Amino acid sequence: MACHELTALRLGLMGVLGIEDEAEKQHELSDLGEAIHTPGPISALTQAKDMTALTSFFGHSLSDLEEKVAATPKESPDLPYLRALLITTKKVEMELQTHMDGLTRLWRDLDEIHHFIHEIYPADG
User: Fold this and answer.
1) Integer distance in angstroms from the first to the last C-alpha of the chain?
2) Is the CB of residue 51 less than 8 Å from the CB of residue 9?
3) Pick from 10, 66, 68, 103: CA 20 to 30 A from residue 78's CA?
4) Domain of 64?
5) Greatest C-alpha distance within the chain
6) 27-77 pLDDT, tens per residue?
7) Would you say the pTM of this structure is higher than 0.85?
8) Within a domain: residue 114?
């Protein structure tokens, strides 16, 4: 059993953040195994090109995990692990949203401070 959601998120973040560590990438790809070739949010997450796609694909992978947990029989020895993974991935989803909110606020603030600078120092022309 592997934490494909977290592994795929790490690969996606490597791309979005511009982290070029081939050894780490190969390690994560190895952890994913055949899941990397299976169409769906896990493989899409590894190829995310921006934060919006990253958070969207991660959300979809969380939905798939929720369905898997719901379909797992109560007597399955995997159920405690899957529930713990679900809690972990939900927390990570919340952290991603916090970072997105912060970056969006920074983006807006930059525009506001830019206008403020030009109020004090009007642009020529």
Assistant:
1) 64
2) no
3) 10
4) 4-120
5) 74
6) 999 999 999 999 999 999 999 999 999 999 999 999 999 999 999 999 999
7) yes
8) yes
